[in-house]
Backbone:
């Protein structure tokens, strides 16, 4: 199953998974998963690490 990255549009290969037979949420329609490629995921993580505030000393 090919899905595209939400940020850059690159094709990301996703593994098919078998649904859980004991899952009660079968009647809920499935949404497309939000997927980021490895490069965009690393970029988001790096930006969020730099956005963290440094705690003030007490």
Residues:
């Amino acid at each position: 199953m090919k899905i595209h990255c939400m940020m850059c549009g690159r094709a990301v290969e996703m593994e098919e998974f078998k649904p859980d037979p004991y899952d009660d949420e079968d009647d809920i329609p499935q949404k497309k998963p939000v997927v980021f490629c490895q490069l965009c995921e690393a970029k988001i993580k790096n930006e969020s690490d730099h956005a963290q505030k440094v705690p003030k000393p007490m």
Notes: The radius of gyration is 18 Å. The chain has a mean pLDDT of 78. The first strand starts at residue 2 and ends at 4.
